Amino acid sequence: MWETKINPNKVFELRCKNTTYFGIGSIKKIKDILEVLKNKGINNVILVTGKGSYKASGAWDVVKPALETLGFKYSLYDKVGPNPTVDMIDEAAKIGRETGAKAVIGIGGGSPIDTAKSVAVLLEYTDKNARELYEQKFIPEKAAPIIAINLTHGTGTEVDRFAVATIPEKNYKPAIAYDCLYPMYAIDDPSLMTKLDKRQTIAVTIDALNHVTEAATTLVASPYSVLMAKETVRLIVRYLPAAVNDPENLVARYYLLYASALAGISFDNGLLHLTHALEHPLSAVKPEIAHGLGLGAILPAVVKAIYPSVAEVLAEVYSPIVPGLKGLPAEAEYVAKKVEEWLFNVGCTQKLSDFGFTKEDVPTLVKLAKTTPSLDGLLSNAPVEATEAVIAKIYEESF
Predict the structure, then answer these.
(1) CA–CA distance, 118 with 102 (Å, rounded to integer)
(2) CA distances to 62, 186, 190, 253, 285 from 9, in Å
(3) Is residue 9 domain-resident?
(4) Is the pLDDT of residue 32 over 80?
(5) Quick count: other Cβ atoms within 10 Å of Cβ 308?
(6) How far is CA 88 from CA 3, 60, 126, 156, 250, in A?
(7) Best label site of 10, 38, 54, 286, fewest CB within 10 Å?
(8) Quick count: other Cβ atoms within 10 Å of Cβ 38?
(9) What DSSP string describes 221-290?
(10) Does residue 156 come out as left (phi exceeding 0), alpha (psi in the -120 to 50 range) or beta?
(11) For residue range 224-281, what is the model confidence (pLDDT) as tens digits?
(12) What is the pLDDT of residues 285-315, one digit of tens each?
């Protein structure tokens, strides 16, 4: 395979809308990035991160000395949890405003980086709050510079314009997408990800798989989003088992991280639809659910629902998982079953009942999918009409 010809220790630049430094050791590029900020007159930043991963990963051992060497003033918000809330964003934004931060550095997976993106907006719109941002009561056109130091191989948020947060009192988990949310620079260093445990490794990777499943099959899918999807699935099938079996396998981490970045670019172009629109209510109601595992629980039912409309595309994209498909609508149930078997084989075994949901919860979940701000936009991109009956059937088949 051609992957053996690539030196994972060689850092290269992955260019999409922003510049991403990719490869083992790319965390050291933070000094170059900070020098760019300093040359722009920015020497005061807020770091937004989770409770401990920024230290456990080794990222802080490089970032802190670089900040101090270059004379940066910095504040730290390290209270971002899984499925971050608008309250966390407002807390971080308050610190950033009070300390005079002019840029935001997010260190973590999707939750800290999405929070950092949101804080960057609120540093520019000082009269607004996170609820107003996520209920789309204003449309931001600017944000403070965003630097994303990625610690997982799943969300792709370091290369795209999306962010997600939960409004807890309403059980809403909207997604926003604005050009001002693109990070100026991102760092994708697989050596920072060897501390991900088995569950996290599986969850974040299944998130990337769902990104491309949707991006390749939306109403606005393009050859570009399909191309990214094909390679993403191939790499996930090849390297996820290796990373699960050996967390320190840097080659496996490298290619899963590359797959995640491709998936982020894919859905930045092709957008998302049913799986994400239906998972957001799950982890809004039960924030302890890992987003990727929630997606894995409903993916087979989504595949079954959409396959007849996009059979040729999914037959191609899913060939590493289900070889020999002919791209016929009649294959839908077979493909869904094989996808579920593959998920179970790699350790993604939970269904909705395992998360504590019952079929009595379905009407509430359907309502949230239909009423949560922004999810209507995802549903409108689905290759089948996302009626309440279709949504309810997907949930019911995912127990």
Answers:
(1) 14
(2) 17, 17, 10, 12, 42
(3) no
(4) yes
(5) 15
(6) 40, 21, 16, 21, 33
(7) 10
(8) 13
(9) --HHHHHHHHHHHHHHHHHHHHHHH-TT-HHHHHHHHHHHHHHHHHHHHH---HHHHHHHHHHHH-TTS-
(10) left
(11) 899 999 999 999 999 999 999 999 999 999 999 999 999 999 999 999 999 999 999 9
(12) 999 999 999 999 999 999 999 999 999 999 9
Q: How far apart are CA 76 and CA 279, in angstroms?
A: 31
- Tokens 């491309």 sit at which residue? 212
Q: What torsion do the CA atoms of 167, 169, 172, 178 make, to the nearest 10 degrees?
A: -20
Assess whether 125 and 217 both reside in one domain.
Answer: no
11 confidence band (pLDDT: 50, 70, 90): confident
Q: Which two tokens stand for residue 116?
A: 């950092």
Residues 310, 208: Cα–Cα separation, whole Å: 19
Cβ–Cβ < 8 Å for 218, 309: no
Residue type, 264: G
Given the structure tokens 């988990």, which residue do they identify? 173
Residues 130 and 278 in one domain: no
Q: Do both 301 and 233 map to the same domain?
A: yes
CB atoms within 10 A of CB 94: 14
- Which of left, alpha, beta for 100 (phi over 0: left; psi -120 to 50: alpha)? left
Helices (H), 7-154: 30-39, 53-56, 59-69, 86-99, 110-124, 130-134
State CA 285 to chain mean position distance. 19
DSSP H/E element including 201: helix 198-215
Which residues have CB under 8 Å from 396's CB, separation 6+?
359, 362
Residue position matching structure tokens 């000082």: 126
- Retrieve residue 192's tokens: 């920072």
- Report if residue 233 sits inside a domain: yes
pTM exceeds 0.70 = yes
pLDDT for the residue 17: 86
- Which residues form the domain of 376? 195-395
Any idea how long the chain is?
399
Here the tokens at position 63 are: 């970032």
